[in-house]
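Lab notebook, bench 4. The sequencing result for the construct came back, and we need a structural model before the next group meeting so we can plan mutations. Quick request posted to the team channel:

Model the 3D structure of this chain.
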Amino acid sequence: MVRILVADGMEQAAIQELKNSGFEVVEQFYEVEELKQKIKEFDVIVVRSATKVREPIIDAALETGRLKLIIRGGVGVDNIDVEYAKSKGITVANTPNASSASVAELTIGHMFCLARYIHIANHTMRQGKWEKKHYEGIELAGKTLGLIGYGRIAKETAKRAKALGMKVVYTNRSGDQNDPEYKYVTMDELLAMSDFISLHIPGSKDKPVIGEAEFTKMKDGVFIVNAARGGVVCEGALIKALDSGKVAAAALDVFVEEPTKNEAIYTHPKISLTPHIGASTLEAQERIGEEIVSIIKKHFNA
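Done. Here's the predicted structure in token form:
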């Protein structure tokens, strides 16, 4: 019987469907050292963000040769050593379509929070304060949204921003300029012209995409949203830009370390925070589960 380890949770209807199809499913999170032992007993591992499938885990799996498939329930696969796994004959898959709308809606939600001080007003109201005069915000309509990266989530974000009356520009690493709906610009142009900047790119082991040099090229009073990956925006440089007023406010759903221990980040009054919940909607989880089931059934011809 094919054994599946669901390491970071999965929608229950999808788990039941796998069981009904004859698969054995174990739902359990393991720390690294224990996972090195347990991984030898499974044909498939399904992860989200918490479990990292690095070379030592893959090497441990190779001792029995059972592991055939690694699935990330989400868009990116930067918590998996993909090329190494593939070089050992292990298939790696993800669910790129399932959560695009959910992450896009969270991005827009954070933009509203920043523009209208919802994040901080909600906090001060609970302290018994009435600081109405402090919270004169701005409208999103008429403002320019710059999208760094232009994949599925960015495109969903662009649709919603356009419906709100925003002007949308985008840039990407590939230089793809095939969307006539919105304007393609260079990175420097985007930094200079955008009122809001939202990142939609995979994580990188290299330097951050947005650091001190990039902040200097932005408009004064720009707003930053990162619901992509921790580390694509330098947290230290962001704090400096917020404190100087260069950046009016920022929204973060992802962090260099999760849970974040960066007190300067999680206590800053100009940052709207959420704990990596971009894909945390009922609808997205259902779609992720369905896509995972489809991948497993197809792989094992079930």
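The two ends are 12 Å apart (CA to CA).
Will bring this to the meeting.
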